[in-house]
Write a structure and sequence with these properties.
With about 375 residues, the protein is α+β, with helices and mostly antiparallel strands. It has 3 domains: about 110 residues, no CATH class; about 60 residues, Helix Hairpins, CATH 1.10.287; about 150 residues, Heat Shock Protein 90, CATH 3.30.565. About 65% of the residues lie in helices and about 10% in strands. The chain has a 5-stranded mixed beta sheet, covered by helices on one side. A hairpin with a 3-residue loop joins strand 6 and strand 7. Helix 1 packs antiparallel against helix 2, helix 5 packs parallel to helix 6 and helix 6 packs antiparallel against helix 8. It is elongated.
């Protein structure tokens, strides 16, 4: 029952019940007195005095008992109404107050069982909705804080390694250890590579901040897929060659194939995937290689980047695009990496209207599949 209805029923009972009971009492007395007067007309004068006295005594006793009955009925009714309001209003409100206090103390596990109806039931439901939303928000905040701490820890670890190496090589140059042109050239190249690693990590951190605030700068334009990947493969191939990794490139799309993309962010996608493959390449194999294939799929283009590295376990393949996910934390921490590379790749691909997935076999390798829609020219009037 709604609280408004409860108040109305209580008001009507208090307003009308006492006059009703009083009216009933006076009606009973009036009926008795009418019977007394009717009998009095036919009684003898000698008997009237005793009977009047007895009737008056009975009338007074009847009036007293009726009055006492009315008082008892009103008293019991008051107790019943008080218990009713206490059970349906005050107790639920006290429970709600205690639950809100638990929320204020940071306890989001206090559940209110909603067996009430009306306004109290709505309050309970609103409290439960609020509790669940707050709990979800706090859980997300804690997860984000844990991830940020992990990110800072990973970045700090990964920055410390190249900084230590750079410091060592610079000290070697200062102390004259690099006393031949060959050694000097090797030291400088190592310093340059380590600096590039640091720059990549800092860029990942900056880009990660952009992902969280949805402020990734995109400059979309028409890209000829064959020309673009021809230049990209040339640059990537030089880096892989320096690491003794063979790059195989196959382009099966027509020279006129165009997609709409941001060239810089698309390059980030390729570099992140290739960099991940290099990081987990299986050096125990005689030939380490990475295949990049551009395939034509009617109205879309599929890019495949495949390596012959360690591969990914089936239980982990569906989670590799999650932020900070690592299939083997101990192994990955030793190899370095912020843990956000593939999540960045997924975000960029999806922002381009494409999609990405991975297939892998342990000890055989991993293949990343990326699909972008082709840019289709509007038909020319001359072609109609």
């Amino acid at each position: 029952m709604k609280f408004k209805t409860q108040l109305l029923v209580t008001f009507l009972i208090i307003l009308f019940l006492p006059p009703l009971l009083t009216g009933v009492a006076f009606l009973v007395i009036a009926i008795y007195l009418l019977d007394f007067k009717s009998d009095f007309k036919y009684d003898m004068v000698s008997q009237m005095t005793n009977e009047v006295f007895m009737d008056n005594m009975v009338a007074k006793a009847l009036f007293f008992y009726l009055f006492l009955a009315i008082i008892m009925i009103l008293f019991l009714l008051g107790i019943m109404i008080t218990q009713w309001i206490n059970r349906t209003v005050f107790i639920p409100v006290c429970r709600l107050s205690k639950a809100m206090q638990s929320i204020a103390e940071g306890n989001f596990e206090h559940i209110l069982s909603n067996d009430n109806s009306g306004e109290i039931g709505e309050l309970y439901q609103n409290y439960e909705d609020m509790r669940l939303r707050l709990k979800e928000s706090i859980d997300e905040k804690m997860d984000t804080e844990n991830q940020n701490r992990e990110l800072v820890s990973n970045i700090s670890h990964d920055l410390k390694t190249p900084i230590t190496a750079i410091k060592g090589y610079v000290e070697g140059i200062i102390d004259g250890v690099a006393d031949t042109p060959e050694k000097m050239d090797r030291y400088i190249r190592t310093i340059y590579n380590k600096t590039n690693d640091m720059d990549r990590l800092i860029n990942e951190l900056t880009f990660y901040t952009g992902i969280d605030t949805n402020r990734i700068p995109y400059n979309f334009c028409k890209i000829n897929i064959a020309d673009y990947f021809g230049d990209c493969i040339e640059e990537v191939g030089l880096e892989l060659e320096a690491k003794n990794i063979r790059l195989n490139y196959i382009n099966l799309v027509s020279p006129e194939t165009i997609i709409i993309a941001d060239p810089e962010q698309l390059k980030r996608v390729v570099n992140n995937i290739v960099g991940n493959s290099v990081k987990y390449i299986d050096r125990s194999k005689e030939l380490c290689e990475i295949d990049i294939r551009i395939l034509d799929e009617l109205d879309s283009v599929r890019i495949e980047i495949e390596d012959n590295g360690r591969g990914i376990a089936a239980k982990d393949i569906g989670q590799i695009f999650e932020r900070f996910y690592r299939s083997d934390a101990s192994r990955n921490s030793a190899r370095g990496g912020s843990g956000i590379g593939l999540s960045i790749v997924k975000k960029i691909v999806e922002d381009h209207g494409g999609y990405i997935w991975a297939t892998s076999r342990e000890d055989e390798g991993t293949c990343m599949h990326i699909v972008f829609r082709k840019f289709l020219h509007a038909p020319d009037e001359n072609d109609l």
